[in-house]
Amino acid sequence: MTFRIAPSLLSANFAKLGEEVDHVVASGADWIHFDVMDNHYVPNLTIGPLVCEAIRPCTTAPIDVHLMVKPVDRIVPDFAKAGANIITFHPEASEHIDRTLGLIRDSGCQAGLVFNPATPLNWMDHVMDKLDVVLVMSVNPGFGGQSFIPGTLDKLREARAKIDAYTARSGRQILLEVDGGVKVDNIAAIARAGADTFVAGSAVFGAGLDTDPHRYDSVMARLRGALADV
């Protein structure tokens, strides 16, 4: 299994966002995770397509846009145009999940569903053919720096079983991403539960001195080292 680490910009220094992207990618990040919150679907307000467009020239790494907004369809084309590669959304935020997934793919991006801790996985059962990513939240969305919810491991195992059964039938691969409280000391257990893509915010961007361009090297190496033992 190939593992991907996607540092979340929610925990980055927004005054130096371009530099943060440069440094974290140089330290080995595979994706850049981009959290979009609207103060309606979740109780926080973050960043929009203009910021995505501004960081797009900073890296060739895929930009993984997680939409925590409602309604969702209106904003999808804006993020696709701004340079997003992957766009995921919450099923509760869409009036027609199949149509929203189709809109994302028609806009030239990979598409995915996001499942809150209390959201059942059966939303994915009838749209597997349009899914490129399944994102399981291991915290309740809205704020960075929260602790990993242990029950997420069982949910990841359930999601992995669904994905593997679908892959066996279709030959299509679907990535299984996890977001919330991922750290060096739990990433191996999360991987063993079935995740292959890991969003890490404060664990990465909270490391080292702000003046050190290599400040993320150590934590990224430790995350990779923990995954190497899986």
Descriptive overview:
By secondary structure, this protein is an alpha/beta fold. Helix content is 33%, strand content 17%. The chain has 8 helices and 8 strands. It has helices at residues 17-26, 49-55, 76-82, 97-106, 152-170, 187-192, 202-205, 217-228; strands spanning 4-7, 32-37, 63-68, 86-89, 110-115, 133-137, 175-179, 197-200. An 8-stranded parallel β-sheet has the order 1-8-7-6-5-4-3-2. Helix 5 links the parallel strand 6 and strand 7. The radius of gyration is 16 Å and the shape is globular. The N and C termini lie close together (10 Å).
Low-pLDDT residue spans: none
Which whole number gives the mean pLDDT? Answer: 95
Structural class: alpha/beta
Number of strands: 8
Order of helices and strands: EHEHEHEHEEHEHEHH
Query: Strands across the major sheet, in which order?
Result: 1-8-7-6-5-4-3-2
Question: Major β-sheet, in short?
Answer: 8 strands, parallel
User: How helical, in percent, are the residues?
Assistant: 25-40%
What is the rounded Rg?
A: 16 Å
Anisotropy-based shape: globular
| Count of runs of 4 or more consecutive helical residues | 8
Beta-strand portion reads 15-25%
Termini separation comes to 10 Å
